[in-house]
Amino acid sequence: MVSGLINANPIVYGKKDHRARTAPVQVDEYAAEPIDQQEIFDHIRDIKDPEHPYSLEDLKVITEDAIEVDDKKSRVRVTFTPTVEHCSMATVIGLCLRVKLIRCLPRRYKVDIRVAPGTHATEAAVNKQLNDKERLAAALENPNLVDMVDECLVPSYE
Amino acid sequence: MADPTQWVKHVELYVNSSSTAAQQEASVDAIANLLKNDLLTLEALVREMEMYLTTTDSIIRSRGILLLAELLTQLRSKRLNDASIESLIGFFTERLADWKALRGAIVGCLSLLRRKSHVGVVTDDKVKAVVQSYLQNLQVQSLGQHDRKLCFQLMECLLDRYPAAVRDLGDNLIYGICEAIDGERDPQCLMLSFRIVEILAGLFPGPSGPLADFAGDLFGILGCYFPIHFTHPKEEDVDVKREELSRALMLTYASTPLFAPFSIPLLLEKLSSSLPLTKVESFKYLSYCTSKYGVDRMAEHFETLWSSVKDATYVSPQTNLSTEVGFMSEMGFQDSDIMKQAFVLLQELVQQSNGSFISLILDDEDIKIFMNSLNQYEDFDNIPIDIRQRLHAVGRIISVCVNTSIASCNKVFESFFPLLMTYLGLSVAEPHENSCLAEDYNPPGRLNFGALYLCVEVLSACRYLVGSDELTPIPDFANQTWCVMLHNVSKSLATVFVSLLRSNVAENSQNAYICYGVKGLQNLAMFPGSLLAVSKSTYDSILLKLMSVVTSDINKTFLWTLAMNALVEIGSFLDKCPDSERLSSYESIVVEKIFSLISSDDLTMPVSLKLQAAFEIGATGINFMLRVVEGLDEAISATLSAVYAHGNRKSVEPTIKLLEYYSNKVLPWFHKSGGSEEIPLNFALSIWDKIENNRSFNLDSLENELLDATMMAMKQAVGSCSEGSQEKIINKALGVLLSSNCLEWMKSISGNTQSEVEGLQQIHKLDSFAIRDEWITSLIASIVIALCPQTYIQNGKFILQFFITTLLNGHVPSAQALGSLVNKLPLKITGTPLSKNLCLDEAVDMIFHSCIWTSYNGSTYERGSSEIDLSSLRLCSLSPESDKIHATIGLAWIGKGLLMRGHEKVKDITMTLLNCMISDGDRGSLPNSKHPSLVCNDEDLHHQLMKSAADAFHIIMSDSESCLNKRYHATIRPLYKQRFSNTVMPILSTLMLKYDSPSIRSMLCRAIAYVVSDTPLTAILSEAKKLIPLLLDCLSMMVEDITNKEIIYSVLLVISGILVDKNGQDAVAENAHSIVNQLIELTTYPHMMVIRETAVQCLVAVSELPHTRIYPLRTQVLRAMLKALDDPKWVVRQEAVRCRQAWASIASRSLHF
C-alpha cells in the first residue's frame, strides 16, 4: 500500500491517567448517569494509530475537549487532529473512531466525526467521506480495511 | 559388585548424543547410586570407561569426561581415598588443555576442589598445578557463556578455598585474572568476576605486594563498568538484578585502598554526569569507599567532595515539594535520591574525618553568606521558593553535622547557634534573672522564619544525637558546649515558640510558624531530663501550653492536631526513656487534665474530640491508659446514672459515644497490649452495679441505640476476660436478675406445666416487660454470647429456661444467647454433678421438650421422640402465629450453634424448619372456625411464618457479627457450612420437585438461595450440574419481589463463580441456553445496578464456553447488549461494551451495526 511512513517520527505526548470514576458513598440506585465527554473519551483514547504503536491519545490526535456530547438529543461529535496536514491516514483514523463509537454507544446516537479545521490539506473531502453512509458501508465491506480497523481497535477493548 | 553389563548401558546412554536430557540425567543418577552404595568402585568405573575418556572422537571424549565429572559432583559427600583424588585431579588438570572437551575438565576440577575436608581434599601441590594449568591453558574470554561461568566459578573456588596455595603465584595469578575478566559482559559472569577481584584484593592487602603494581591495570578493567546500567529495560536475566550487580561492583571498588587513587577521581568525575542514576550511584560508592579506605586516603579529596555535595544539595538542589495536604505553606520538601545519597556521604565524611571536614563546611563562604543573609527573609510569605529550597538544604547539612558526633555538634553550635539566637532576639550568654523573656512575650513584628526553621532543625538533630547514641559509657552530655548553650536559652526559646502559638490569626501563612512553633516545643520537651538542657519549669510550661491548646483551641484544627501529635510524641518518648521527674510532670499536667476532661460533663469540648485526645494520650503508655480508663469509667458511670435515674435525654448521645469508644478502641488496645483483664472486668461489673442500684428506669423504650451500644461494650468486655472473671460477671448479673421483676412471670411458666398455656398468654399480655427488665435480659444475653466454653455457669438450667421464655417474646439477643449456649456447653460435666449444672445433652433435651414447642403432644407428626414438634403448634389456637415466628428465629440461632459444633440434633431443627415451610399445602384441610377477616390476617401471618422459616437458613449459614464468632469464643468445626449444605441441598431439591404451590416453591427457593450463597464455592462446583437448574429457578422466582434484590445478587455471584471456573464451565455448557435467557432478563433488572453489572459480566464469561453451544445464542445476547449499552449507569454500559465485543468476535467480523 504505502511505501514509506507518512509521518515517520511523530511527537509522543504521553497520556493522562485514566480518571477513576469515584462513586459517591451513598449511590442513588435509580439516578441516571448520562453519557458524558469523559465516557466517550474513554472509549476512543486507546485506539491505536494505524501507523505507529501509540494510542491516539499519545499523539494528541484526540483530546477530551474535542468531544461534544448531548445525551438528551443523542448526538456526539468528535473532532480529531491528524499529526500532519497531508496525512492520508486521516480517513482510516476517522473510520476507526466511527466504528468504535457505533459499537459502544446506544443506537439512538448520531455520530459525527470531523477533522479539526485547518489541520488537514483536504479537510472538506475527508469530512464528506467520513460522514457519508454509503461510502462508510462500502468501506466496511472491504476486508482489508476492516482488518486494519479491527487491529487498531484491539487495544481499546482492553 | 554390580554386574558391569548393567551399568555400562547407562554410560552408553549418557555418551550417546541422541539421547534426551532426562535420560542422561537418569543414567547419571543410576551410576551415582551404585557408587554411593559401594556396588561399584571408582577404579572399576574409570577402567571400564577408559575408551570414552581417551578416544580421539572429541564429542564422545567430552561426554565421557563430563560423565565422570558429574559423577564426582554427585559423590561430593562420599569419602574417597587420597590416591584416587590425586589421580583424578591430575587427570582433570591435564585435560584443562584439551579445549575440545573442556567442560568436563572444569566441572571435574570444581567438584574435587569443593570437597569438604572430612571426605578427602586435594593437596596444595595439586591445587597449584591446577592454577598453573588454568593460567596456561584457558582462554576464558574465547569460551561460551556457560563455560566462562564455570571458569570463573573455578577461580573463585580456588581463591576462596586455597588462599595459601594460590598466593605464591603472585604476579602471574593477578595477570591471569586480569586477562580472564577483561571485556566480560554477561551479568552472571560479571557477578563472579567482581567477586574474584574482591577476594584477590583481600589476598594481597599490603601496599607493596604484587597487587600494588597491577592496581591501575585491574581498575582499568573494572572502571568501565561504572555505573551499572541495563540498556534493555526488559531484564532478560531475571536472575541477576541491577542492584545486585551494582552492589557487587561497589564491594569490589572498596575492597582495597590500593584502588583509591583511581576510583575516587573516577567517581568524582561521574558526579558531573547528567544522568540522575549515575549521580546516585556515585554518591553511594563514595560513601562506601570512604568508610572502607580510611580517612587518610580520602583527605586529599575533601575539598572536591565537599564542593560536590554542596553542589548537589545547596547550589542546585533537587527537591520535590511534597504534595501532602497540610504542608502547603510549610517547608514540605522531599529530598530526591541524589540528595539523600549526598547526605549519607556527608555523614560518612564528617564521622570519619575527626573534625577536619566539619571545619570545611563551617568555613564555607557560601554557607556563611547565606546564614548572614537570613535577615532579608523575615516573613515566610516573602521567601522565594529557591531560597526555601536552600534553607531546607542548609538545614539538612547542619543537622547531618549535628547528629553525627558530639564534637561536630559542638562545633556547629559554636559557629552558628549564637547567630541564630540573635536573629530570634535571644542571647546565649549566661542568663540573668532579668534577661529572661516575660511569659507573655510577643515577638516584635514577624519572627525571622529562616532562623526559626534552622533552630528547630538543629534541636531535632541534637535530640537524635542524644537519643540514638549507643555509646558506652554514655558521654557526659551536660558539660558539652552545646548543652550549656542550649541550657542558657531553652527557657527563652520556649517562650518564643509559645508566642507563635498564641497568634490569633488563623490565616494560612501562619501555618508555617505554628507548625515550627509546635515542633520546637516538642523537641525541647523531648530532651532527657538528665541532660539539664531544659529545666523542669520550662518543661512544665511547654506541657501546659500544649494542653491549653488541646482544651481550648478546638476550632483551629491544624494547630489542635499538631499539638495533639506533639503531646503523643512526648508521651511515647517518656514511655521509652522513663524519667521520674518528667513522668510526674507529664502525669500531673497532661494525663490528669485529660482525666478531668472526660470525667467532667463540660460540653464546651465535643465528646468525640475529648475521646480522641484521651485515647491518643492513653495509648502512649500503659499507666497513662489506666488513668484515662479510670476517667472513662467515671464518665460512663456518671452519664449512665443520669440516663437511668433521671431520664436525661441529653446524656444519651455522649453515653453512646463513650461506650462505642470503649468497645472499639480501649478494649481492643488492652487486648493487643496484653494488659490486665481488670479493666474489662471492672467495667462490666460497674455497669451491673448501675443497673442494680437504679430500681426504676426512667427511659423511653426508644433508646435502643443506647442499649445496643451497651450490649456491644458488654460483649467486648466479657469476651476479653478470662474464665474466672467471666464467672464473676455472670454471677453478678444473675444476682441482679433474681432480684428483678423478671422472675415473677418466669415462675408462672417454669413451675407449673399445667398452666403453661395461660402462662404464655400472660407474658404476651404483659406486652413487653418493663424497660429495666429488657435491659437486664439483653445484657445477660450479651454476657452469655461472649462467654468462653470453659466458663462454668451456675444455675444454667434457670438461665436456659429464662431465655426460652424471653425468646418467645420476640427477644432476638435471647435467641442468640441460646445459640451460643448450645454451641459452647460441655458435653459432660466433670466433677461432682450438681443438679443445677448443665451439660449439652441436657440443655438440648430441655430446649426440645420445652413446654413451648410441645404444647400439644398428641400431634400427628411422629418422626422421632426428640424432634421439636413445631408444626403441632399450628393446631393450638391459643398461641398466635407471631409466637411461632419468634420460635422459628430462636430455632435458627440454636440450630446455628449446634451446627457450628457439629452436633447431630441440628438435623431435627432443620426438619422442623422445612416442615414449617411446606405447611401451607395441608392448611386448607384445617378446621377453621374463625371469622373470615381473621383468616385473612392469619393468612398473612402464616406467610410470614413460612418466610421466617426460610430466612432461618440465612441465619444458620451466614457469619454473624453479633455472636457465634471467633471473637466471642465460639466452637467452630471446620467445613461446617459445607457439611450442612451437603445434607440440606438434596432435601430442598426433592421438595422442589414435589410441591407445585407457588408460595411453597418461592419459600424453598429462598432457602436454597441462602444456603447456596454461603456455601464455599469449591463445594458448589462439584455439584454444579445439579445446582444450575435450581438456581435458575430461584432467580426467575425471585425477580418479581423488589425486596429480594440482595438474595438475587448473592445467587448471581455464585453463578458467576461457577462460570469462571474451569470445572464449572463443563457443567454449565448443557444449560447454556437457559442460563443466557435468565442472565439477559437480569441485565434489565431495574432495582439494583450491581445485579445488572454482574449479569453482563456473567454473559462475558459465557462467551468462553464451547462455540457449538453458544453460537445460536449470539444474536439474542447482542440484542440484549444493545439495550444494556443504553443503561442509565456508567458501569453497566462499560461492561456492556466489553460483552458486546466478546460476543461479536466469536462470530464472523460482520457485526450488525
Report the C-alpha radius of gyration of chain A, rounded: 16 Å
What is the beta-strand fraction of chain B?
under 5%
What is the count of DSSP helices of chain A, taking H or I runs of 4+ residues?
Answer: 5
- This entry's quaternary arrangement is heterodimer
Cα-based radius of gyration of chain B, to the nearest Å: 42 Å
Residue-averaged pLDDT of chain B, rounded?
Answer: 81
Give the overall shape of chain A.
globular
Fraction of residues in H or I helices of chain A: 25-40%
Mean pLDDT of chain A: 85
Q: Would you tell me the structural class of the helices and strands of chain A? A: alpha+beta
CATH class of the domain at 4-229 and 241-258 in chain B: Mainly Alpha
Tally the helices of chain B: what do you get? 55
Report the end-to-end length of chain A measured between terminal Cα atoms. 29 Å
In terms of DSSP E residues, the strand content of chain A is 5-15%
Head-to-tail CA distance between termini of chain B? 82 Å
- Percent of residues in helices of chain B comes to 55-70%
Write the layout of secondary structure elements.
The complex is a heterodimer of chains A (158) and B (1153).
Chain A: H1 37-44, E1 67-70, E2 75-80, H2 90-104, E3 110-115, H3 123-130, H4 133-141, H5 143-153
Parallel strand pairs in A: 2-3
Antiparallel strand pairs in A: 1-2
Helix pairs in contact in A: 2-3, 2-5
Chain B: H1 4-15, H2 21-36, H3 42-54, H4 58-74, H5 82-95, H6 102-113, H7 124-137, H8 145-161, H9 163-167, H10 171-181, H11 187-203, H12 210-223, H13 242-253, H14 260-270, H15 276-293, H16 295-299, H17 302-315, E1 319-321, E2 333-335, H18 337-353, H19 356-362, H20 365-372, H21 385-404, H22 406-423, H23 449-468, H24 481-502, H25 510-525, H26 536-552, H27 557-576, H28 580-599, H29 607-618, H30 622-646, H31 652-672, H32 678-693, H33 704-719, H34 723-738, H35 742-750, H36 756-765, H37 771-786, H38 796-808, H39 812-824, H40 840-848, H41 870-873, H42 881-901, H43 906-917, H44 932-957, H45 976-994, H46 998-1014, H47 1017-1022, H48 1024-1038, H49 1045-1060, H50 1062-1069, H51 1072-1082, H52 1089-1102, H53 1107-1110, H54 1114-1124, H55 1130-1144
Antiparallel strand pairs in B: 1-2
Protein name (chain A): MIP18 family-like domain-containing protein
Domain MIP18 family-like (chain A): 38-102
Family (chain A): Belongs to the MIP18 family.
